[in-house]
Amino acid sequence: MNDSNIVGQWTSAPGAHDIVTGKARYCPDLRLPGMLIGKLLYSPHARARIRHLDVSKARAIPGVFAVMTHEDIAGENSYLYAAPDQPLLAVDEVRFQGDAVAAVAAVDEQTADAALNAIEVEYEALEGLFDPLQAMQAGAEQVMSGEENVMMSRTYRSGDVEAALAAADVIVENTYTTPWAEHAFLETEGGVAMVDDEGVVTVWSSCQAPHRDRMQIARALAVPESMVRVITPYIGGAFGGKDEAHVQIHAALLACAAGRPVSLVRGRRESILTHVKRHPFIVECTTAASSDGRLLAVKVRAIADAGPYTNATHEVLNKFGEFIGGPYQVQNLEVEQIGVRTNNPITGAFRGFGAPQAAFVYESQMDDLARKLDIDPLQIRLLNGVDTGTRMYTGVVVREGSTMKESLRKAAEMIGWEKRNQSERRPASHLRRGWGMATILKGSGLGRGLADHAGVVLEMHRDGSVALRSGAADMGQGIVTVMAQLAAEKLGVDISSVRVVRADTARTPDAGASCASRQVIVSGNAVLEAAETIRESLMTIAAGKTKISKDRLELKGGKLLVDGEPHALSVADLALRAIAWGYPMHAESRCHFEYPDDVPEVTYKYSQEIFQFCTHIAQVLVDCETGQVTVERLVAVHDAGKMINPGGVYGQIEGGCAQGIGYALTEELVVQDGHTQNASLENYVIPMALDLPELEMGVLEVPEPSGTPLGAKGIAESPIIPTAPAIRNAILDAIGKPLYQLPMNAERVLAAVES
Amino acid sequence: MNGPEYIAPANLGDALRIKHERGAQARVIAGGTDLILRMRDKVLAPDLLIDLKNVSLDTISDSDNGIRLGACVTLSQILSEPVITGSYPALAGACREFAGPPIRNRGTLGGNLVNASPAADLVPPLLAYDANLVLASSSAVRELPLTGFFTGPGQTVMAPDEILTEVRLPSMPAPTASVFIKLGQRRSMAISIVNLAIRLTLDDASRVSAARIVLGAVAPTPIRAGASEALLTGQELSGELIALAAKKASRETSAITDVRASKEYREKMTRVLVRRALESIRDELQRSESSG
Amino acid sequence: MAEIDIRMTVNGSVQQLKAGAGRTLLSVLREEAGLTGTKDGCSSGDCGACVVILDGQPVNSCMVLAPQAEGSQITTVEGLAVDDELQPLQRAFAETWAFQCGFCTQGMLMSCHALLMSNLNPTREEILTAISGNLCRCTAYQGVVKAVEQAAAEMRSQDQNRHE
After folding, report:
1. Does residue C106 sit at the A interface (CB-CB below 8 Å)?
2. A350 touches chain C (CB under 8 A)
């Protein structure tokens, strides 16, 4: 596959034509005969007891087809991402501003609004718990009665941290805080549901995990999973925020109750108020080193504000702990992970899953350490970086780690790290310029010991065309394109010959969630494996027809090649014969993430084994009178293992960097006493076209030695992770003052300048 | 929920007559970029929308001693008008930094005024240029200075039967220099944390003969920093004077803390930005003096 | 609520619609004209997903009331391709990966199309300014800049050929 005209090319996405012509249909674009508009009534309180709930007036409004409360849910009244503690519709208490209390379906939006207005709810406002530090104190009132506010408390230890701290020459100790961050996927959460002629509840869902949606919907409806079908239409972004279910379950409940199709799409304000956010963390971190800059120990205590419900808190804290040591050779590490319930917004998956918070901490610590020791930030990282074969503090051995240092060197070269001091550091009396780097590792897959597999069904027809059925949701990240490329490559056909059937639980096998940078690996492997079966059939026919041994034959561009020269037989000719003679031309494959058994004594739970290394270096200009930070340059060097589609890879890097710049400088959900103050795209400030530098991207391709398709690595999450600490370190370099809180908005930077 | 009635009168006379008949329950709509939002958020629920699109209030014309802008000219129109980019750069600057192109293509000069947002970007430059407004009703037309037009957030002196029809800007005597500065959280689509416009006119002896320092987003309405203006008037610009004027201006604010910035930050930024604006004006005036 | 007759030309064909005065152009295009290519990202003029071209200028269709558009000429994403033949700009968007999820794309296309109608040789800064009211959360803007530059080059050479 070296001289490929498919893999490694900027092949356009199969859906590109639909998108640029406006034909692509997303949930809000679906229209069904008799379709109703669904809406949810959300709590205006961060915490309140529901004293009285009366929906009778709403039910009486002409044009209202269904009004539901928790009493009308036949099955389980709960989301089920991790623990069944978040109700779909509140029972006797609301615990955050986004808890839903009732659901309505009506002929149009006005009537649905009128129904919401006619619902009588008597709340008894209760004092909420909004400070995780207070909520975790013994004796604090319980956010969920009968459940401890500290929902998770776990400490992982490797080596002897206390002894290493005692022996250290230098110690850096700081406390970091990070904000709630909002995904702001451009398409808000939506679901469209109907009951078909056979009684199957069919739900179009803007989601990341259609098969898990199906399970959740079936449980809520109390029907067999076989009577539920979940289809993904085009999806307008997700970034982790559509991993957990949102309104698709309610849409299904309403469609069943109303006996008509229901479309339920959140408005922007509702969306920001109700779906999970990136967890805010408070992290105390102590890092110890020898006088020559070698890391000796890292000791961490991390507190995550979970909001009232469990959601992904355990998993996010788990990944935080897995990465808090960074891509460094540090054996003595202790990390205490604490998740606390509050009445603040709910929290969950968001690109990076605990790793962005961890990287802000460990990469800031590295620069503080470098300054204290007067060592160059590049050198201290090269000194401590992992290599191939390094055993991490998690117990895992890095299978391919050369790109840790290679990405550092390449990024340094691209920005001109050694020559940076020749540039103007003080272009005007109030301006300071600085450079900062951050280097990280990010794993792919859910982790050792967890069910982590994907299935694919591939079929080649008599004319050589191919149907590829995969349950992997494509929210824009490009998995559909990657799978089509891999199938086309392996089967020797043009990419236009491959039709991908988008995720539909009735037609496609379960591929698990599109999360954790996993699909390119696990679904990619499944595609190659399934394609191999079909390819073998084609080659057997070809060898038989031509009487030429298979090692001289090749399939490419729809043709059979003999010794590299086109033969009269096409792939379609071979397919026709293979089907006629009963060779397997329909293949199903299921691939798992592989975790070798010969790793001795893995001590960190659910640790990953395939790592992506990357380095970002930022050049910033700080206005010391206003605190405004301009990112003048951002170099991003990533290891893709093997690029299946450069367009997708560069797009992911650029998009992640843009989100990272927002996380660094402006993005913060402002929450006061559980109430979000900036639930709009006007006031939740995301960088736009004029705010971003022209990114300088470098891609390394060092193939993962085993377990991934052609050596490719997942690249979805890493680009956001090092951006904020790189900018933080550049600001430190510019103004000589460290910041420990995200975002580093103008006011906070000015306070640092003036401190 | 009942929506409003809608009418697009063919001429100003009809518009004024309808406004007179329906009073405050009728809202005039021009671009609609503020009004539609407020209707959606149910802050406003007018009975009737009077659309001015057929009423010819969308021209920019020279007059004897200045220019006249129809209330319905869009921000994009202002930006593409050489008279304004040449002679009223602070107004052009405010339009350039306003939202993004799709909003600038709809949002109007008059809308930005009558909505009376404390952070309205066009108001500081208009005040700095001593703009007058023309308010018409079915019975009278009055011209009044923009100073004093705003009485609070969202509040103006307009009577329920009046429509803003025109903004008049006097010619600026030479040598005059002016500048607009906006501090926002991003370079487009930003609501100002602080915005300001400053205009200085010099006399023959290079002393300040007229000073306008107008601050936005730091008080319930855009304000003129009167004490600071007085300090400059009659003086030659010096570094110390500029620093003092900037300090004084920040004391004239009554800012609040909101989701974008704290009161203290707004006060500090007022001082920094007034100083920067005055320095840039001084430099410009010096340049024009040496080249003239 | 009295419904108003609204006549406008959308993508070259005259549309006779009825809508309450409080309805936005966005809502009418999507619900009455069935043109769902135009997206609703925020309903508040902040994201640009709903940008259409109204009498030659890109505007947020969520910030225009339907009756305000009476008598006007409107182009939506559905009106770009002629007989399913993609315009250079659309082709360039697909080729340069100027989008991922595609939800911002039609608004982005409209802003860029309007730019190219008046300027076939835009600078990078002009392109960025033209899309400074369009939010892309997936892949940011470099692909869009590349796409506009590629399309502009192709359109310039088409222009030249036509004049020769």
Report:
1. yes
2. no
Domain boundaries of chain B, sorted by first residue:
5-51, 60-170, 176-291
Q: What pLDDT, in 10s, does the model give residues A168-193?
A: 999 999 999 999 999 999 999 999 99
State the fold for domain B60-170. Answer: 3.30.465
Query: Which of C77, C135, C144 has its CB closest to that of A22?
Result: C77
Q: Give the three-state DSSP class for A351.
A: coil
> Residue B2 has what pLDDT?
58
Task: Please check whether residue B7 is in contact with residue B18, taking contact to mean a CB–CB distance below 8 angstroms.
Answer: yes
Percentage of the residues of chain A whose pLDDT score is greater than 90? 96
**Same domain as A682, residue A663:** yes
Q: What total of structural domains would you count in chain A? A: 3
Contact A699, A156 (CB under 8 A): no
Answer yes or no: is A267 within a domain. Answer: yes
On whether both A407 and A553 belong to a single domain, the answer is no
Q: Do B6 and C67 touch (CB under 8 A)?
A: yes
d(Cα C35, Cα A107) in Å, to the nearest integer?
20
Mean pLDDT of C39-62: 98
Answer yes or no: is pLDDT of A442 > 80.
yes
Least Cα separation, residue B52 to chain C (angstroms): 9
DSSP label of A400:
S
**CATH code of A119's domain:** 3.90.1170.50
Task: State mean pLDDT over A700-716.
Answer: 95
- What would the two tokens of residue A642 be? 């093997």
The pLDDT tens digits of the residues spanning A505-557 come to 999 999 999 999 999 999 999 999 999 999 999 999 999 999 999 999 999 99
Contact C4 B6 (CB under 8 A): yes
Q: Which chains touch C (3 or more CB pairs under 8 A)?
A: A, B
Cβ contact (<8 Å) for C137 and A237?
yes
A194 and A202 Cβ atoms separated by less than 8 Å:
yes
CB-based burial, A129-167: b 16+ in 10 Å, e otherwise: bbebeebbeeebeebbeeeebbbbeeebebbebeebbee
- Verify that A94 and A213 share a domain, yes or no: yes
Contacts of residue C100 in chain A, CB cutoff 8 Å? 237, 476-478, 648, 651-652, 655
> Is A285 among the domain residues?
no
Count of CA atoms in the C-beta half-sphere (13 A) of A468: 29
Of C20, C60, C70, the CB nearest to B103: C60
CA distance C92 to chain B (A): 22
* Orientation of helix A746-754 relative to helix B263-291, angle to 10°: 90
Topology annotation, domain B176-291: Enolase-like; domain 1 (3.30.390)
Q: How confident is the model at residue A4 (pLDDT cuts 50, 70, 90)?
A: confident
Torsion of CA A182, A187, A189, A192, to 10 degrees: 180
Nearest CA in chain A to C85: A21
CATH number given to B5-51: 3.30.43.10
Q: In what order do the strands lie in the sheet with A565-570?
A: A553-556, A559-562, A565-570
Give the structural domain span for A503: 453-592
Question: Do A482 and A509 fall into the same domain?
Answer: yes
Specify if A24 maps to a domain.
no
pLDDT tens for B247-280 read 999 999 999 999 999 999 999 999 999 999 999 9
| Domains of chain C and CATH, by start | 3-79 (3.10.20.30), 88-163 (1.10.150.120)
> Could you tell me which chain B residue has the CA closest to the CA of C19?
B3
Contact B106 C60 (CB under 8 A): yes
Do A97 and A208 reside in the same domain of the chain?
yes
pTM of the model: 0.98
Residue A120 lies in a domain: yes
Give the angle C153-C155-C156 at the CA atoms, nearest 5°: 65
